[in-house]
Amino acid sequence: MVTENLQAIKQRIENACKKAGRDPREVKVLLATKTVPADRIQLALQAGYTLIGENKVQELSQKYESLQPLQPTHHFIGHLQTNKIKDLLKYNITCIQSVDRFDLACKLHHRLQAQGRTMDIMIQVNTSAEDSKFGVAPESTIDLVQRIAGLHTLKIRGLMTIGLLSADIEQARPCFRLLKQIQQQIKAFNIPNVSVSELSMGMSGDLEIAIEEGATIIRIGTAVFGKRRYPDSYYWNESAYVQ
Ligand SMILES: *Cc1c(COP(=O)(O)O)cnc(C)c1O
User: Fold this and answer.
1) Is the pLDDT confidence value at 20 over 80?
2) Residue nearest to atom 11 of ligand 1 (CA)
3) Do 198 and 157 meet the contact criterion of CB atoms below 8 Å apart?
4) Which fold has domain 2-236?
5) Could you please report the per-residue DSSP string of 172-236?
6) Which of 157, 167, 196, 209 makes the best surface tag, with the fewest CB within 10 Å?
7) Using one digit for the tens of pLDDT, what is the confidence trace for 87-118?
């Protein structure tokens, strides 16, 4: 199933790119692997996909070793608590897409500095204004970017958002447009140490709309691996968090 599903995703990306007049090579697929066992992730890696993202450090640590032979590129896409930074940095993570507050950035910076490392990050923006989702408020994004720009171990590469989840996928479009607008505003500031070329937006349901609105990374879980056992509130809503 996984390989057929990947084929279907590839087709959807090609169709969306055609419609939007974009080159499919501009759109990277990140496999959102929360709750997916390592052996199923391996199938996707064997099919040639390389970019994967976990939401929880604990799940990353459980699957990391068994995926290493296939050399995936790991992004972290979940809400990151400051007390999990140390654990997260034990793994070879290429990018943390979910940086959404200055105190988190500071703590990350201090750990990275001590280890003599740098880290690519993205700023997660709450474009749907839902309380249940993480991310910096749209109007506070530039301020946050400017402050983080002063932390030399953190390399801002782009912006990430989760579009409004609704039966009507068009509801996500204004979220993606807003992220693109914020990207343009940040670019106009020409902030040293900041490049916001990546837009990580679009998931299984709304990837076509995200591609039309300029996504460079789409994050796909369900459409590749099937329905998850846990509701997404387990990952996205702090009040539903179980530690
Ligand atoms: C789970 C998840 C996805 C993938 O969602 P699907 O609808 O299953 O494709 C994308 N981004 C984040 C941050 C996620 O937690």
Assistant:
1) yes
2) 219
3) yes
4) TIM Barrel (3.20.20)
5) GHHHHHHHHHHHHHHHHHT-TTEEEEEEE---TTTHHHHHHTT-SEEEESHHHH---SS-THHHH
6) 167
7) 999 999 999 999 999 999 999 999 999 999 99
Mutate to test the pocket of ligand 1, among 179, 206, 219, 220 (most ligand atoms within 8 A of CB): 219
Q: What is the reported pLDDT for 242?
A: 40
**CB count, 10 Å around CB of 233?**
12
CA torsion, points 221, 164, 175, 226, in degrees to nearest 10? 10
Which residue has 């897409």 as its token pair? 97
The pTM of this model reads 0.95
Residue with CA closest to ligand 1 atom 12:
77
Q: Is 206 exposed, middle or buried (0-12, 13-18, 19+ CB in 10 A)?
A: buried
Residue 107 backbone zone (phi > 0: left; psi -120 to 50: alpha; other: beta): alpha
The confidence score (pLDDT) of residue 166 equals 86
Average pLDDT, the chain: 94
The beta strand positions in the chain, using DSSP E, are 28-32, 51-54, 73-76, 93-99, 119-124, 154-160, 194-200, 217-220
